[in-house]
Amino acid sequence: VPYARRPIKSERRCVFAGTTNESEWMQDDTGNRRFWCVLCPGRKELGGKVDIEGLRRDRDQLWAEAAHLHALGERWHLDDENEELAREEQESRRARHPWEDTLAVALKDKNTVTASQAWEVLELSWDRDNGLVNKEPKKRRDKAGQMQLSSVLKVIGFSHKRKIDSVWHYQRPAQPPAPPTSPTSAPEVGV
Questions:
Q1: Closest by alpha carbon to 115, among 137, 91, 89, 96?
Q2: 169 bridge partner residues
Q3: Is 44 helix (H, G, I), strand (E, B) or coil?
Q4: Of the candidates 158, 73, 72, which has an alpha carbon nearest to the alpha carbon of residue 118?
Q5: What does each C-alpha distance from 69 to 74, 78, 151, 190 come to in angstroms?
Q6: Helices 143-155 & 115-124, crossing angle to 10 degrees?
Q7: Under DSSP, is residue 113 helix (H, G, I), strand (E, B) or coil?
Q8: Which of 78, 96, 97 is nearest to 37 (CA)?
Q9: 84 with 139: CB under 8 angstroms?
Q10: pLDDT at 178 > cutoff 70
Q11: What distance in Å separates the CA atoms of residue 145 and residue 75, rounded to the nearest whole number?
Q12: 32: number of CA atoms within 13 Å, CB side?
């Protein structure tokens, strides 16, 4: 219950479903896990359309089978393997921010970056079509722009930290070292 004094545990009583014709529609970089994305291509013999009449005909049977499996204790949520598949599907539908590629390429070898350094990358990025310096980020150094920058940096693998000198910075987790290769593990080449 919203605004209740104490949490109340209750069973889920409904599921929402929706459709879209867009391929990149997810905009919430923190809440996309709520969506189980399923591509529903239409049937070729119906000209690429969904078989609405077939769904109407089989609807009660589909719900009966689902209810029966649930009553038998069948898993109704995703296991770890399917959670990973769901994340991949969600990521494939996430709307990309225009700064994402620029920052990902420019910061690929950096493990720590300040917001000022990230803004500098954006301000110095070249507009390949016009050959002009991109001045848009200078106008965006307000709270909303800072939140967008923070969101993009998190998407490309950084997390928000504070340095000892009180300068906010973003840091990537340390990459584990590559396992050493031994001469015995390399494949032999015949002469």
A1: 137
A2: 114, 161
A3: helix
A4: 158
A5: 5, 15, 40, 57
A6: 90
A7: strand
A8: 78
A9: no
A10: no
A11: 43
A12: 20
Do the Cβ atoms of 169 and 113 come closer than 8 Å? yes
Q: For residues 172 and 32, give the distance between their C-alpha atoms in angstroms, rounded to a whole number.
A: 22
pTM: 0.59
CA distance 102 to 149: 12
Of 149, 130, 128, nearest in space to 138 by CA? 149
Asked whether the beta carbons of 125 and 102 are under 8 A apart, the reply is: yes
Q: Residue 126: which H helix or E strand, with range?
A: strand 126-127
Work out the number of other CB atoms within 10 angstroms of the CB of residue 103.
Answer: 21
pLDDT digits (tens, 9 = 90+) for 72-104: 999 888 888 988 888 888 888 888 888 888 899
The answer to whether 154 and 94 have CB atoms below 8 angstroms apart is no
Q: Which residues contact 46 (CB under 8 A, 6 or more apart)?
A: none
